[in-house]
Amino acid sequence: MEEPSTLLRALRPGDDLVELTALLHAAYAPLAAAGMRSYASHRDVQATAERAGAGECCWYQHPEVATIGQLGVHPG
Length: 76
Description:
Strand order of the largest sheet: 1-2-3
């Protein structure tokens, strides 16, 4: 039996930021419903594009897992 393929790649110019923003809204909806209003729960597509363009943005893709994350590293 062949293992499902996993892909980790940089976000590409043709990637659907509307879909990505909707994924963020859905992922953070339970936190927002609990009163923890994370920016990812309500930001618009333009804000997603700006944040993705402000640094390196990677996309993790696996058939059985949906994951997106943001990582910050202090330069000092």
